[in-house]
Each structure stands twice: as structure tokens, then as C-alpha cells.
Specification:
Layout (H helix, E strand, L loop, with lengths): L1 E6 L2 H11 L6 E6 L9 E2 L7 H10 L4 E4 L2 H5 L2 H7 L4 E2 L3 H8 L1 H10 L7 E4 L2 H11 L3 E5 L8 E4 L2 H13 L10 E4 L6 E8 L4 E3 L4 E2 L2 E3 L3 E4 L4 E4 L6 H21 L6 E10 L2 E8 L7 H7 L4 H9 L15 E7 L16 H5 L4 E5 L2 E4 L2 E4 L3 E8 L3 H12 L23
Bound molecules: adenosine monophosphate and glycine.
């Protein structure tokens, strides 16, 4: 099969790496890919938002199957477009992708379906939002309703903090049109988990559990990022709680969409907080998580191409996945300044040495190749991922590998997995 994978992040390197292992693959194209995918796949400079170009590429290269990694092309309707060409496509329709691209759409669905989530109000007028904060105080979470690369959320503790967030999103338009509507939510507390499930008309298949780390600094401090590291599985979710999440969140979400005439097909990602009164949904994503996918792909032993194709063709009920029982842990190296403005084009050294360590993979994210040299080319640059006998062992191995890598101003968290580690482990 000739497969076209859309995207360029660490998630896509991990998906491409696993797709390339499939005996069914003939050619793998990644659009646009990064320096990591260039090692074993064909990177193509294709803009996935220009649908006629995508159609031409599919025709000229006899593509049989399209896998869409990131949210932007899904929100723009690329899955519907590929489907209209008569090809199987992995990724939900534009309507279904509203679960991620419109946080208020997701909130209303959760309200209709009685899915446990934070109480919330939405505002399109900044003055009304300010008035609400002045009446109710600043202990809340303020979110741009549209897509903001995981950075559109501010957890607020004081009134001034909340007013600044409203000003930043709605008046200064820090996230452009994505902030034309904001959602102000009740601030919840508890550990967070990422529960990803494959979904088609025939089944919901819950993948192994994982936990992301969104704030930029150790101890979960500093501004929000797209994700600084993840590990799988997480002991934070018991099997009872996982069943509860499937029953109370995943099933009613898919049912609620179906009631509105929308069939979900692809990965459904629920970001949840495990509060004292049970799991609560913080967000839905309509794609694989980044960086959660990196440890998940390290652990997946089944054929990814066959699995994704089964979802696209509505045969998920017949699929069963095999996983490496060992935990995997991923640490993300970021550019100096990220998640604020950052420099790119810095040379990176040591990737090959780190990659050569046993049970270790350096997934590229924001990288590019220039004259044979790997350069930084994004905020999140590399996702160093290792399997271990325990989570502590996987963390040690990922950090050892990271210590072999260098670029100027490189930053990474040293405490990924801390919620699963007891002192002395
Ligand atoms: P989201 O993109 O909506 O998942 O939000 C990004 C991050 O903000 C989450 O991973 C949480 O750390 C935090 N967050 C979001 N919503 C809430 C909430 N209602 N209460 C507390 N923290 C939240
Ligand atoms: N890891 C968070 C996300 O993929 O949105």
C-alpha cells in the first residue's frame, strides 16, 4: 500500500516509524514530515490545507490510504475531502472534529449527554467576560474556544490574572480568531490523564493509558505548552476508573454525536482530571496526542497500518491490539524561549548516539535537515522516548539519552512521570 501521512511533529515521526514496520507498506509519504521521517520515508512539501494539491498528489503517487495526524487539517475538512475521492482515510470528519476545534461545541454536547466536566460559561463580548469575573472572582480557567496549539488555556488564581487572560485572548487577539469566543470554567484539581480510544461505527477500543505534562517547567509550573513529556501506562488510572471513563465519557460522547447525525471515525482523545468527585473531562482532541503517541507507539506490538485501516474501513470490532507490558516514557526537548517566541535553525548534535541506546528512540518534532546537518525548526524539537522495566527506569533511560543531545538553549523537564514515582524508586 502507498500511504500518505499528514503532519510534521513528534507524533507523526512515531506514527510513521510504526507504519513503516508494516509488511503491507510499499511507499510511505509524509507531508511535510521532519528530519526524522526523512530517514526512512519520503518527505513531501505538500500543504494539507490546499485540497486540490492533495488530490493531485494522491493521483500522481497512487496513494491508497491517508492518515491525518494534526488537528488543523481535520478541522478544515481534509478527511471529508479524501473520503470524497473514494479513498480510506484515518481521521474524523470536519463536523466530528468540532469536538476539538470548538470547545463550546464540546461543552454543549457534554451537557446534553450528562458527561462529567467542569461547569462553564461562554463569552464573545470581552466586557461581559470582565463583568462575570468581577462578580465571581478570578479562581477559574480561561480558554480560547478555537484551536490554539495547546497554549490557549490560562489557569487563573486571582482576579487580575483572569482579567489579563481575557485581555490577552479577546482584545490583544493572542490566538487570532480562535479567541473570538472564550470559555470560562470552574477550576478543578486532581491528577490529569489522557485516555485515547479508536472509534468507528462498530466499536470503541480504548488504548493503553498515558499521562502528559503540559506546563513548561519541573513541578508542573510555568506556562502551558503542547506537552513536555508523557509516559504509558499510568498507575494514576485504575482499571475501575478506566471502565468508568469508557462508560461515562467515551460511550455517551460517541452516542451524542451519532444522535446529531455525526459518525465518529478515528482517535478520540479525552483529557481528564481525576477529581475527588470522579473523572471530569477537560478537553477532547480528535487525533492522537503529542507526546502521548510516542510512548504508545514504543509499546504497540500490533501492525499500526492494519489497525488504522480497520478503523477507516469500519472493521474495528475485529481488531485486538498487543502491547509491550513494559512502560515507556518520553521527554521533550524544546527551543529556548518556548512556549513564547523562539529561535530556530540551531544545529543539534548527539542524536545518533542517543538513538543507538537500547530500547530508546529519538523522535524528531521541530527539526529539519540542511546540508546533512539536523537543525531546530520548531518549539518542541525532539521527543526522546525509552522503554524501561519500571517507570523510574524508563525515566532514567530517557534522561540518559537526552544528556547525549545538545543544541544551544535546549530545555527539557527532568521530572516526567513524577506522579507515578514514589521517593526512592
Ligand atoms: P485543555 O487544552 O483544555 O486540556 O487545557 C490545558 C490544560 O489546562 C490542561 O491540561 C489542564 O492542566 C489545565 N486545565 C484545563 N481545564 C482545567 C480546569 N477546568 N481546571 C483545572 N485545570 C484545567
Ligand atoms: N498532549 C496534548 C495534546 O496532544 O493535545
Amino acid at each position: 500500500m502507498n500511504v500518505l501521512l499528514i503532519g510534521s511533529g513528534g507524533r507523526e515521526h512515531a506514527l510513521a516509524w510504526k507504519l513503516a514496520e508494516s509488511p503491507r507498506i510499499t511507499s510511505l509519504f509524509v507531508a511535510p514530515g521532519n528530519a526524522g521521517t526523512a530517514q526512512f520515508a519520503h518527505n513531501v512539501p505538500l500543504n494539507p490545507l490546499r485540497f486540490p494539491d492533495v488530490a493531485k498528489f494522491i493521483k500522481n503517487n497512487a496513494i491508497d490510504f491517508v492518515v491525518i495526524g494534526p488537528e488543523d487539517p481535520l478541522a478544515a475538512g481534509l478527511a471529508d475531502f479524501v473520503h470524497s475521492l473514494g479513498l480510506p482515510v484515518f481521521g474524523p470528519s470536519k463536523q466530528a472534529a468540532q469536538l476539538e476545534s470548538d470547545k463550546w461545541f464540546a461543552k454543549e454536547l457534554m451537557r446534553r449527554q450528562a458527561i462529567p466536566t467542569a461547569e462553564a460559561r461562554s463569552f464573545t463580548n470581552p466586557n461581559a467576560a470582565v463583568e462575570y469575573i468581577q462578580m465571581h472572582g478570578g479562581s477559574c480557567v480561561i480558554k480560547a474556544s478555537g484551536l490554539a496549539k495547546g497554549k490557549g488555556v490560562t489557569v487563573c488564581y486571582r482576579t487580575q490574572h483572569a482579567l489579563d487572560a481575557i485581555d490577552n485572548i479577546m482584545r490583544k487577539k493572542a490566538f487570532g480568531d480562535a479567541g473570538a469566543r472564550i470559555v470560562i470554567e470552574e477550576r478543578l484539581t486532581g491528577p490529569e490523564v489522557s485516555i485515547l480510544a479508536l472509534v468507528d461505527k462498530t466499536a470503541i477500543y480504548v488504548l493503553e493509558t498515558s499521562q502528559d505534562h503540559k506546563p513548561v517547567e519541573d513541578g508542573d509550573t510555568g506556562p502551558m505548552t503542547g506537552g513536555m513529556g508523557a509516559y504509558s501506562p499510568t498507575p494514576v488510572v485504575s482499571s475501575d476508573v478506566l471502565s468508568q471513563i469508557e462508560r461515562e465519557v467515551l460511550v455517551p460522547t460517541v452516542d451524542g454525536l451519532r444522535r446529531d447525525g455525526i459518525d465518529y471515525s478515528g482517535v478520540l482523545y479525552a483529557g481528564l482530571m481525576l477529581t475527588a468527585s470522579g473523572p471530569r473531562v477537560l478537553e477532547f482532541n480528535c487525533r492522537f496526542g503529542d507526546p502521548e503517541t510516542q510512548p504508545l507507539m514504543m509499546r504497540l506490538q500490533s501492525d499500526l497500518l492494519e489497525t488504522l485501516l480497520a478503523v477507516a474501513e469500519g472493521r474495528l470490532a475485529k481488531i485486538n491490539l498487543k502491547w509491550d507490558p513494559r512502560p515507556a516514557l518520553c521527554v521533550v526537548a524544546t527551543s529556548p524561549g518556548y512556549p513564547g517566541p523562539y529561535k530556530t535553525g540551531l544545529p543539534i548534535s548527539g542524536i545518533d548516539h542517543a538513538d543507538a541506546l537500547p530500547d530508546t528512540k529519538v523522535f524528531h518534532a521541530g527539526t529539519k535537515l540542511k546540508d546533512g546537518q539536523v537543525l531546530t525548526d520548531g518549539g518542541r524539537v525532539l521527543a526522546v522516548t525509552a522503554l524501561g522495566q519500571t517507570i523510574a527506569d524508563a525515566q532514567r533511560r530517557a534522561c540518559q539519552a537526552m544528556a547525549l543531545i545538545h543544541f544551544d538553549g535546549m530545555h527539557y523537564r527532568k521530572d516526567i512521570g513524577h506522579q507515578a514515582l514514589r521517593p526512592g524508586q
